[in-house]
């Protein structure tokens, strides 16, 4: 099976290197750690340490049907759903054309959230083995997950292994 281009596009926005065919976070299970309001979005360079010199998007973010949405054009994470897995740490889920992509979001006081999407190939092999998750045969860097507990186990183990060195792919800041 070949991964659709849509998953690769979603990966660019969420990082969705972990994906599932079915949603692993139901609408009723979603958490909303960020209040509705106006936010700026600043991506980080590939080094995971250096932010762009200015926000790439600013707009109003609202909640609808268990998701974060915006009527403002270009919201890179439109339709994002979050579920808490540890204090201030959430798994983010976003739908693409055919699959659901997953990443990590840290939420801080004052309306600040950073996000990172681990690449399957950057997760230690013993972590993937422990949770019976394997890398896609033809699309390196992508792993399909089939249930919530495995996804949580992989993500928490990854965060623990990375410690303070976990990269940041971008940040949202409340501006109103």
Structural class designation: alpha+beta
Helix residue percentage:
10-25%
**What series of H and E elements makes up the topology?**
HEEEEEEEEHEHE
Please give the domain count.
1
Task: Give the termini distance in whole angstroms.
Answer: 46 Å
Helix tally equals 3
Taking Cα atoms only, what radius of gyration do you get, to the nearest Å? 15 Å
The major sheet is characterized as: 10 strands, mixed
Q: What characteristic shape results from the CA principal axes?
A: globular
Beta-strand percentage range = 25-35%
Report the count of strand segments: 10
Q: What value does the average pLDDT take?
A: 89
Low-confidence stretches: 1-15
Describe this entry's structure for a reader.
This protein has 176 residues and is an alpha+beta fold. The protein has one domain. Helix content is 17%, strand content 31%. The protein has 3 helices and 10 strands; from the N terminus they run H-E-E-E-E-E-E-E-E-H-E-H-E. Strands 1, 2, 3, 4, 5, 6, 7, 8, 9 and 10 form a 10-stranded mixed β-sheet that branches. Strand 6 and strand 7 form a beta hairpin. The longest helix is centred in the last third of the chain and has 15 residues.
């Amino acid at each position: 099976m070949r991964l659709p281009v849509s998953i690769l596009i979603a990966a660019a926005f969420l990082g969705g290197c972990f994906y599932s065919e079915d949603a692993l976070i139901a609408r009723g299970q979603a958490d909303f750690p960020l209040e509705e309001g106006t936010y700026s979005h600043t991506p980080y360079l590939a080094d995971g340490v250096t932010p762009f010199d200015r926000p790439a998007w600013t707009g109003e973010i609202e909640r609808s049907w268990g998701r974060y949405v915006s009527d403002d054009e270009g919201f890179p994470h439109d339709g994002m759903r979050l579920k808490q897995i540890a204090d201030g740490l959430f798994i983010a889920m976003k739908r693409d054309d055919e699959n659901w992509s997953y990443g990590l979001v840290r939420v801080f006081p004052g309306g600040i959230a950073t996000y990172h999407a681990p690449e399957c190939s950057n997760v230690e092999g013993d972590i993937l083995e422990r949770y019976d998750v394997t890398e896609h045969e033809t699309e390196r860097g992508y792993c399909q997950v089939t249930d919530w507990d495995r996804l949580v186990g992989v993500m928490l183990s990854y965060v623990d292994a990375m410690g303070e060195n976990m990269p940041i792919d971008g940040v949202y800041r409340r501006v109103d």
